[in-house]
Design brief:
This protein has 3 helices and 5 strands; from the N terminus they run ααβββββα. The chain is of the alpha+beta class. The protein has one domain (14-119).
């Protein structure tokens, strides 16, 4: 007779890799990240911004996301900048104002270039 314990085990859902989700140009789903207490925070992704590092000639990827789940210290509708490390598969909040300003400056230029293409 079959062992029913194996039959009744809950099926594991495929975990969604937030980095793959963020980098997927066709993704329209919100991204779920977890705070230090392992509580899920849902984000709407705004953009992925590559930033050139003048010192190393490499690019660093950042993403701008708006928390759907309320976050302490973040106003409603306010974006948060995250650094993406594709090698370590880490996503971390950026607190350095210079980096945030650089990311937002590049984002603004991309928006302006995009809206300029629509006019012609």
């Amino acid at each position: 007779m079959k062992d029913l314990r194996d039959e009744l085990k809950p099926k594991k859902m495929k975990a969604v890799d937030p980095i793959e989700q963020i980098l997927d140009e066709n993704n329209t789903d919100n991204v779920i990240l977890y705070d230090p207490e392992k509580k899920p925070i849902e984000f709407e992704q705004v953009a992925v911004i590559p930033v050139d590092d003048d010192k190393t000639a490499n690019q660093t990827l950042y993403t701008i996301m708006i928390p759907i789940t309320p976050m302490q210290g973040v106003s409603e509708g306010e974006g948060v900048v995250f650094k993406i490390d594709e090698i370590t598969r880490d996503i971390e909040v950026v607190n350095d104002e210079k980096v945030i300003d650089k990311v937002l400056e590049i984002y603004q230029k991309l928006i302006e270039e995009g809206s300029g293409n629509d006019e012609g």
